[in-house]
Amino acid sequence: MAASQRRCAAVVFAAMIAVQSSLVPTLAFAQAPDAKTSLANGDKAARAKDWTGALKEYEAANKAAPSAEALEGMANAYVQLKRDGEAYAAYDEYLKTYGAKVPAAKKAAAEARLKELAARTGALALENVEAGAAVAIDDAPYGTTPLAGPIRLSAGPHRVRITKEGFVPFDQAPNITAGATTSLPVKLEAATTKGRLSVREKNDKPIRVLVDGVDMGDAPWSGEVEAGAHDVGGRGGALVAAPEKVTVERGKTREVELVASSSSATLKISTNDGKGLVYIDGKLVGEGTFSADVPAGQHTIKITREGYDPFEETIDLKDKETLSRSVTLTLVSKIETGPLQKEARPLEGLYGGFGLMPVFQPGGASSSMQRSCESATKPAELSACDSGWGGAGGGLNGFIGYHWDPVGIELFGGGQYDHSGNTLSWAASSVDPGIGPDPARTEAFDLHRIGAFGAARIRVTFQGEKLRFTFAAGVGLAFKAMILTRESQVIANSAIRNVHVPDGQSYLSPLVSLEPTMHYRLGPHTSVGLGLAILIESPNSFNQIPTTPQDGSLRLGPSGHTTPPYEMARGPQVFVGPTIGMMFGP
Predict the structure, then answer these.
(1) Which residue has the higher pLDDT, 581 or 273?
(2) Which domains does the chain possess?
(3) What is the rounded CA–CA span in Å between residue 453 and residue 559?
(4) How large is the angle between the packed helices 104-120 and 84-98, nearest 10 degrees?
């Protein structure tokens, strides 16, 4: 019977091993597709230049099943998103974890990219940081101290905020130097709700300091008290120092000088409704009421209250005398009658101002690439097209002029930058440009434009007591320089790519400026305004269409790569954007 039981147990054990063996591949197979699907989605988003989406998918793939492909995709997405610090960390981890396993070409490419990022990034070392403090870089959580090591960041200023309960937040913006380590000493100050009082008797007479009626010790005395209002006075033997009301600010020291006298009198002051600030000899001693011993002698009583005539009286107190005063304040005796005459604000004289303007180009630059996308008769080889965004940028402007109510004449000028782009996908072409047929490819174009402008304008202004509306319009000239970048990639092999940057081109154009603005007057000669800037240019007017030269020598891998002349801007160039600025003058 024992042998039968052993055979039965052996059969059960073998069955469990078989079930477990069948479940492990099943579970592994259930997890693997998540990483595989995310990786494929990441590749698809990367091909579409959706780098935010690509990063999300690659991160999901790496979390489900860490791999060289997912980490490499994350690093490349960080680079495209200009997040150089995170890109450096990803490439560094890629080489340390998979450097010995990946193909030599991929390892060399990652090392080259890491070297390039090292030249664009620097390290931030936080020194003397309290343990357990939360670190945020550019408002994004980074970790809790102590950190593993220096933080790799792109060159330039970054906001560093460090917080810990019980401490005042540390907030600075150090400038990171590329290729170097920037040290940032961090000192967290303990938060406090208290301030300090420092009290002395003017002639060093021996008195005890009283704070809110509590004996604090011999003068001079210094100690912490809760922030806020306190009554401070003094008494000792036959000496008395009149109390005064002082306000102590948090984290600061308030110094008080008392005057003690060997003879004293009792003074009681009150107002009929318990309101009004009571001053004795120019020092605030209470609100509505005051009752305390004061040095004998002459004193000045003053009571003030908004909307009422001030009360003032000089009294002479004898030793041991008790004096009571009940005061009824009266409404202000000067009452304006009739309509209030406001000061006239003539709009005449020299004026000027400045403004910041984010600009948008709703219609785009009308480049030859954009027109290829939007044309009803596209080239036969153009398989897909993304005309991209219309263009965006920013600028700074200023103006100076002379006003004759309500019209002014001014000189207006400034600088501006904008950027636009689009992507074209081409099918393989049998056309031989002299090197070989073009392969199927995508071409991503980026247009950068920078320059200055100036105009003579007329400004019409209408204003009230606080608000001012102005409308400025005029004509002038604009000079712009443009740079084109084309990044090409073979569709069948994403590793084959090149970047073509032809010589920059420029143009001179007439300019039309329109700018309605609403101002809020901060004072007689200063106002802050919010408006809408409209700038219109046209390179065609002077026949200065910026065009890159044709290039027949470029290759895309072993194949040819047609590079025709590209018109970077044609026709009216309309820039629209809000402006915020200030105006000075009448």
Answers:
(1) 581
(2) 29-121 (1.25.40.10), 123-185 (no CATH), 196-327 (no CATH), 348-584 (2.40.160.20)
(3) 43
(4) 150
The single-letter code of the amino acid at 334 is: K
3-class SS of residue 134: strand
Task: Quote the tokens at residue 52.
Answer: 């935010």
Residues 568 and 571: their CA atoms lie apart, in Å, by 11
Picking from 337, 471, 459, the residue whose alpha carbon sits closest to that of residue 400 is 459
* Block residue for tokens 């913006």: 173
pLDDT at 10 exceeding the cut of 50: no
* Alpha carbons 65 and 494: distance in angstroms, whole number: 24
Read off the pLDDT of residues 389-433 as tens digits, 9 standing for 90 and up: 778 999 999 999 999 888 999 999 999 999 998 898 988 886 554
Q: What is the DSSP letter of 81?
A: T
Main-chain phi, psi angles of 5, to 5 degrees = -70, -40
Half-sphere exposure of 493 (CA within 13 A, CB side): 9
CA distances from 131 to 22, 152, 189, 256, 312 (A): 49, 20, 14, 40, 59
Q: Rounded to whole angstroms, what are the CA distances from 518 to 373, 471, 524?
A: 39, 9, 16
DSSP conformational letter for 561 = -
CA-based torsion, 552, 554, 559, 561: positive or negative? negative
446 alpha carbon, distance to own chain's centre: 26
Structure tokens at 275: 């309101």
**Tens of pLDDT, residues 358-367:** 999 988 889 9
